[in-house]
Design a protein that fits this description.
alpha/beta, TIM Barrel, 13 helices, Enolase-like, domain 1, binds cobalt (II) ion, binds (2S,3R,4R)-2,3,4,5-tetrahydroxy-N-oxo-pentanamide, 2 domains, three-stranded antiparallel sheet, 402 residues, globular, ten-stranded mixed sheet
């Protein structure tokens, strides 16, 4: 079998997605997600200008060699644009491999290690009371794990909380909006939020929280300590993670489990975090981590250090990545939890998929390959629209991490 053609589908059914479709001379095609929120067209052009021409004529079964060819062969390694493009190719090839062998991708990754993939939902509210109600609403939907975020008194908006009544979507059409931030207000507020949530839901539910890279290590240590009585499943992205040993200080101070890695793109972003046992969950996604080929190695490396997976699963990762995460999560031994932020109805119509949610778990389905396809005609009705994530400033105007 040979790769005969590859094309890129850019569409915006509610939000932007970049999808790679690889076709073979045997009539089998595979899909890969190449979406990088706010930088979509850079990945599309990396693929069309630099990767696709090198793929034509190659054997799609050679996933290891093609990955090495694209990673090492470029000389210029790593970075989110490069790795999202390589990730899209790798996932599309595994999809083809599964279809050609007439088996779901999870069987190529080790088979089923569990009945389903434990997922966590996103709950949020403008106030603590609204956030508590939303956590309860998700538990009523059967979720066994819920992430809670709430608005903060004194701040107009914050990460994880929608501005109006629409569902939360961090990227906004047009140029970047600006929000204001105060770590002081956030640190005072967040333990109160979890006290109320825990009181309302009891101990039998996993609670999670995303700090979204906004604290310093000593501030994160304080937050982790103050959240200890509420037994979080994890505290996510407490600090910006370029400095891996920033996590050492947090780790030495608190037993609140730590998760990070949604913005990482190779093992070299997480090597020390894992080996030093400074984190509990590694959150790299299949797309931004460069595909199944490296993610499987990273998960196996993490397993040696008691680190489990918790793959990023926000709506800016397309249903192709969601499917990939579910095949991966059901197969690997050190799976922890999977983020589940449901896509809009428009997105689910464009990307028809076999995976489904039931009673706190998701299931990848038994279709050969990934079990996702794209309706290209429908996709063409939703053209790309420029969109960005917000930027963030402290109350005095200093630009800070969003
Ligand atoms: O802000 O995916 O845990 N989830 C997250 C996400 C990120 C977006 C950025 O594109 O932090 O909501
Ligand atoms: Co996050």
């Amino acid at each position: 079998m040979k790769i005969q053609n590859a094309s890129i589908i850019i569409c915006s059914p509610g939000r932007n997605f970049v999808t790679l479709k690889i076709e073979t001379d045997e009539g089998i095609h595979g899909l890969g997600d190449a979406t990088l929120n706010g930088r979509e067209l850079a990945v599309a052009s990396y693929l069309s200008e630099h990767l696709i021409p090198c793929l034509i004529g190659r054997d799609p079964f050679q996933t290891e060699d093609i990955w090495q060819y694209l990673y090492r062969g470029a000389y210029w390694r790593r970075g989110p644009v490069t790795m999202a493009a390589i990730g899209a190719v790798d996932v599309a090839l595994w999809d083809i491999k599964g279809k050609a062998l007439n088996t779901p991708v999870y069987n190529l990754l080790g088979g089923k290690s569990r009945k389903g993939v434990l997922v966590y939902a996103h709950a949020h509210g403008a106030t603590v009371e609204e956030a508590v109600d939303d956590v309860v609403r998700h538990i009523d939907l059967g979720y066994l794990a819920v992430r809670a975020q709430s608005g903060i008194l004194g701040l107009e908006s914050t990460y994880g909380v929608p501005k109006g009544l629409q569902s939360y979507e961090p990227a906004e059409r047009g140029l970047p909006s600006e929000s204001r931030w105060s770590s002081e207000l956030y640190l005072r507020h967040t333990p109160k939020l979890f006290q109320k949530v825990r009181e309302a839901v009891g101990e039998n539910v996993h609670l999670l929280h995303d700090c979204h890279h906004r604290l310093t290590p000593i501030e994160a240590a304080r937050l982790g300590k103050e959240l200890e009585p509420f037994h979080l499943f994890w505290l996510e992205d407490p600090v910006p993670a370029e400095l891996q040993d920033g996590f050492k200080l947090i780790r030495e101070q608190t037993t609140t489990p730590i998760a990070t890695g949604e913005v990482f793109n190779t093992i070299w972003d997480a090597h020390d975090l894992i080996q030093q046992q400074w984190i509990d969950y590694i959150r790299m996604s299949i797309v931004h981590g460069g595909g199944f080929t490296p993610l499987k190695k990273i998960a196996d490396f993490a397993a040696l250090y008691h680190v489990r997976t918790g793959c990023h699963g926000a709506t800016d990762l397309s249903p192709v990545t969601m499917a990939a995460a579910l095949h991966f999560g059901i197969a690997i031994h050190n799976f922890g939890i999977q983020e589940h932020m449901p896509h809009s109805a428009e997105t689910d119509e464009v990307f028809r998929h076999q995976y489904r949610y039931e009673a706190g778990y998701m299931y990848p389905g038994n279709a050969p390959g990934l079990g996702v396809d794209i309706d290209e005609k429908l996709a063409s009705k939703y053209p790309y629209q420029r969109a960005y994530l917000p930027i963030n400033r402290k109350l005095d105007g200093t630009l800070t991490d969003w």
